[in-house]
UniProtKB/TrEMBL annotation:
Record PROSITE patterns: B302_SPRY
Gene3D superfamilies assigned: 2.60.120.920
Species the sequence originates in: Seriola dumerili
Name of the protein in its database record: Fibronectin type III and SPRY domain containing 2
Domain B30.2/SPRY: start-end pairs: 12-211
Amino acid sequence: MPNSATQTSLRVCWSLFSDDTVEYYELYYRPVLEDMPETAHPCLSISEDGFTMFYGDEETQWLNNWDFQDFHFMNVNMYIVYLIPVRGRHYWEVEVDDGTEFRIGVAYMDTERSSYLGANNTSWCMRHILTPTRHKYEFLHNGWSPDLRITVNPVRIGVALDYERGTLSFFNVDLEQHLHTFHCHFQSYVHPCFGLDNPGALTVHNSIEGL
């Protein structure tokens, strides 16, 4: 079916996994960051087309005079967007550069706004950290991450959410490489979340919903 915002959709055929299973999806192009500006940290801004989030850019200066309430992320540079209220499989992609520290994942709407994404039991995320010797990646939930080493820095990351299977998976899209999967029982619907821990930009390219 067409997307309610754009009335534009395209059916695509692609496999998210390494086996021979072919999955069918409906590809929706839409501004995924624009609907909920009241959840943004005041140092963040969103591009006019709604697809790119900036931190530390001159475009953010106009936000300094805004009156943000407790509902917003105030201590972390986070943005929470569309609720995904449809059971099934969902997929979106995020592009970053390898000099940007970021967090991408999902959270319940009632996740603590003064906390970090992945630091509690109401959010899950992939985190990129720059260290003096290497790029470090963490897959955080409730403050814990498995000990994983990623040798090729992903610049385009696929995120696949499956409510029925209780999985949240991350992929290096350019290499068609699986990075990590969280296994969890979602108690309610979740929102995609995006965060920048240093100056940079993050772009969401599309949203795919399983048929």
